[in-house]
Batch of 2 targets.
Target 1
Amino acid sequence: MSPDIIVVKIGTSSLTGDNGALSMEAIDKLVDEVAGLIELGMAPVIVSSGAIGAGLEELGFSHSKRPADALTLQAASAVGQADLVGTYKRSFARHQVVVGQVLISPYDFWNRQQYLHAKGTFARLIELGVVPVVNENDALADDAIRFGDNDRIAALVAQLIGATRLVLLTDTAGLFTGDPNLDPDASLIEEITEIDHRHRAAAGSASSGRGSGGMAAKLRAAAMASWSGIDTVIADASHPGVVTKAADATVAVGTLIRARAAHLSARRLWIAFALPAAGDVTVDDGARTALEHDGRSLLAAGVTAVSGEFASGDSVNVVAEDGELIAKGLSGFSAVELRGLAGKRSGIDGAPKLREVIHRDDMVLLNEEG
Ligand code: GLU
């Protein structure tokens, strides 16, 4: 039987001290707990940030004057990534565990061939008993296309490799009903079976530390994992034994976001989460109802506006008149073609019959609560 795969993501703010340097203590704590999962027969995968912070520190940029230009940050990531993985390697060596570095870029998820290839590499690493330490390929990724958000990468990796659990470690105990720094009545939400607007509002209000993601990014990653049939735990990295507790389905720690009962197929997950949207297609209320309630395809008659430049087959956002994101799908037309067709009825009163703007099979509704 193949082992349960647990993806553990840790952010910059939990790994580095106030000066941005990697905290040996924090890394050893994480590594001890992750090594404990191997002893329990599980296969852990780490998604670790901290490269840019560590590199800036090593290059002598003071933490208070963090450079903003992409090239310096990318150069810093190249320096810091070596340091980061070296630190994990030394720390895991105390447990006779071997680690392997995997750097990922958005292309690895967009291109299906590359996606399957990555899946094979992870599977082999796990078979060999290696703990993959994953980060974004920050040094080379074009700033405009990079994910820049390791919570998202962790969810994509969890889906790619068929993980049973995603553990997002952070510097708070989990998701609270409000910002615990501002609201003394805010309490920890222990379990979410369906993410809804209240959770999103609570996550949006939570302040974030040195990391880039914040709670909103964690909730989005958890939603992605949930659609993929994976449970997520958001918990405090500094809590003793947090990784062991989070990996154990019988123990409550942090906020647990449950997998949805109905999962999306691998292809729909790819459309919904891996492909970046190349533009927005705005639809009227009638079309919205047809999509959300009647299970229909999107037709040109319901399109009121088109933004962005995309080709036929590209992924686009479907948004309501009020700007709310309803769905994502593969457009049957280019942006130029669609601008000419928006609002036109098809096959009525002698008008030619048009194909669907987004066929039902190429569309994922994102606005269902949860
Ligand atoms: N990949 C970045 C780093 O290693 C961090 C991205 C994130 O914090 O989500 O520094």
Note: The radius of gyration is 22 Å.
Target 2
Amino acid sequence: MEIASPELISKYESVIGLEVHVQLSTRTKIFCGCPTSFGAAPNSNVCPVCCGLPGALPVLSRQAVELAIRGALALNCEIRPVSVFARKNYFYPDSPKGYQISQFDLPFAEWGYVDVVVNGEAKRIKVTRVHMEDDAGKSLHEGFRDSAKYTYVDLNRSGTPLIEIVSEPDMRSSDEAFAYLTELKQSIQFVEASTCDMEKGHLRCDANVSVRPWGQQELGTKVEIKNLNSFRFLREAIDYEIARQVGVIESGGKIHQETRLFNPDLGITVGMRSKEQAHDYRYFPEPDLAPLKIGDKWLTSIKSTMPELPAIRRARFATEFGLKEYDAQVLTANRPLADYFEAVAKVAGDPKIAANWVMGDLAALLKTSNKDIENSPVSAQHLGELVALIVKGELTGKLAKEVLPKMFESGDPAAVIVEREGLKTISDTGELERMIDEIIAANPKQVTEYRSGKVTLMGFFVGQVMKNSRGQANPAVVNDLVKAKLG
Ligand code: ADP
Ligand code: MG
Ligand code: ZN
């Protein structure tokens, strides 16, 4: 079997659907009161319920349901008024109940969508369903694979609340899958349903991939790729899998439905189990939990606390503030940043200049000091005031660049630093005229040249004034005055 060349690949259309697991940001587990805190000593956050001891009964967490609903609403889903938990039966050492509590034919949310823009083209990816489930524990192997001597089981994660988000097979390239997952993550973070921290496993993605000759209606046989725990791996795994499938078909073979694992070191996918070996989960309604009823009143109250979603906010930043699409995208990357920028813009009185300062000088200072916007030593109010000084012509942009690091260091407002260091812009014409007279007197040669037509020397005179005033002269005023004096 050969990996197909780009030329062969272009004869096929690829089809991708994603299944994404998101860990909800609850303090406790979904069916018991054990904490969900990350990094606790193994098997310390456990009780009879999440250990799966016989006779222990689950009690559904209200907070988990609320966060699940927020997550589903962030993906524009409809919420089913009555949904049902189901047992998904399988044996695995880190799942002591012998089954997972999930939802099957009646999930709590359906009919959603995520809008993306890929290569300048807008596209809507449909979300089939979102359901709630509990997470399994973790197996830790000492040694590797065949050489493993011991396997340890840590049940701290067992019973952690998850939502699984299943998309329609609507994506046609790894770029679209990348864009979908990016937008999904951002939306869920905005509504604070999850941190979506991939490094901690709070966002996990499986990709289903198939190919078909262009024009064919029927979908090709899909392969599911597990273990995609970064955006880069998602892209690499999909691209590899497309090339592999086309290679198989072009050399006369057939794609078999199977689950494959992505090996990030080799950049390839490897067969894990075929459809024949697939589980029969024997789903049935969970007898220990009543159907979940989400009434209008509850739903309305959750909806009333939903923030503006990132796509909408991005569009508003572009229309209301006149920001470029790219800038609007950067400034809505996360909610704290978007909130910060909006607060700066309001105080500054000029959103575009405010955007430049947030994305430019402030971002650079945060980066070098390894800080997030949430704990910026310069508050949005203070940065807004600094920008307002520039907008009002009371501080030159150049000097503001010196003021900001001092604000960052001291936490003092701009006005205090400007006052202390005497940096205020000089707009007083009397004072500026005196300076200009001195410069004219000291540079007779340039004056003569200017008057005989070398008008480019204007820049020389203005530059001298700026220099003598240590950058504090109001450049616009200086310009006018120099012009008038040299006549
Ligand atoms: P299964 O029952 O095997 O889990 P589903 O129908 O639930 O299959 O689909 C799981 C995921 O696979 C969904 O995200 C769906 O969009 C995607 N999918 C289904 N068929 C295909 C296909 N032919 N090619 C690519 N993705 C597909
Ligand atoms: Mg599935
Ligand atoms: Zn527990």
Note: The pocket of adenosine-5'-diphosphate (ligand 1) is lined by residues 15-19, 166-169, 208-210, 219-220, 222 (CB under 6 Å).
